[in-house]
Amino acid sequence: MASDLWEDREVRFDIPVLSMQLRPGEKIIDRLDAIEDTKGNNGDRGRLIVSNLRIIWHCISMPRVNLSIGYNTVVNITTKTAQSKARGGGADAMFVLTKTAQSKARGGGADAMFVLTKFKNTRFEFIFTNLISGSPRLFTSVIAVHRAYETSKLYRDLKLRGAIVNNKALNLLPQEQVYDKIVGVWNLSSDQGNLGTFFVSNVRVVWHANLNESFNVSIPYLQIKSVKVRDSKFGQALVIETTQSSGGYVLGFRLDPPEKLQETAKQIQSLYKVYGKCPIFGVVFEMEDYVEDAEELTIEPTQDDIEIDTVDGQGDVMAAYFADGSKNKDSEPVFCPELGLAIEKLKDGFTIQGLWEVIDQ
Fold first, then answer.
1. 158, burial (CB in 10 Å: exposed 0-12, middle 13-18, buried 19+)
2. What is the pTM assigned to this prediction?
């Protein structure tokens, strides 16, 4: 299930229109139709779609020119004044690194949002400018949804030894419902085994040791690869195998009597299948001041008779967004009197004081 989930974990450029469509469980939270990709497509009016997994931007006149930015790749989001040529003056924009941007679509200074991301050890910087003067929607929706994503990781990530149990009771997530609580479940991770309690909910399976609540594991269905009953040196056991992205764990649990083991295995397998059809990613955010009709919050499929080569030229597309610009190697070291150290020479327009201000923000 998680093996084919890329939307929140990758940065992709010029993806096919089908990849822009929402996957099961993905929902559109906001859409803005006057957003410029100031760094990569300066001067082109585009549409920014904010879902519960990613940010999608595409050029309105040419939808095959697009971006998909997963929230899990976002390092930082901040705002700063930018220059927009399309708008012709100050504009609202979104960045992930504080700088000044020039927008052809707006044609002058603009408040911009910078989004700094890291994917496969490469940092990309995106600058989005709202071409509607004075509108804070670009900032409020993206920043708030990303914050909601960051605070709901238990829905999507396997967690070991977390604060998930309190006084023998499971700390429920906002959209979570517990279907079964099973006592007397042995965790077979050690030679002796550890006696504990199982919780089976609509989004995950949780086990904790009875003698030490901090010895626990939370396994979201999103990270489960298989659920089977196998033979072990302790007899038949419930075996949950997790995805490689979550560590590739093989977790064994023993329940008595054997009938209860089979019943629990079937229950988890059934909930796992139901979850796969309509995943719950846990990102909850409601637009209070501006709610659009559901029909308008869809990505219109478009027919494109041009076949795009996704291999050749991909590096040129990505190069425009490198956070380090066209840098291929480290600059020669220079002495920095402020730090009393030798540092890599800063690019034009950057100062040590300015970099510290970025960290403070």
1. buried
2. 0.77
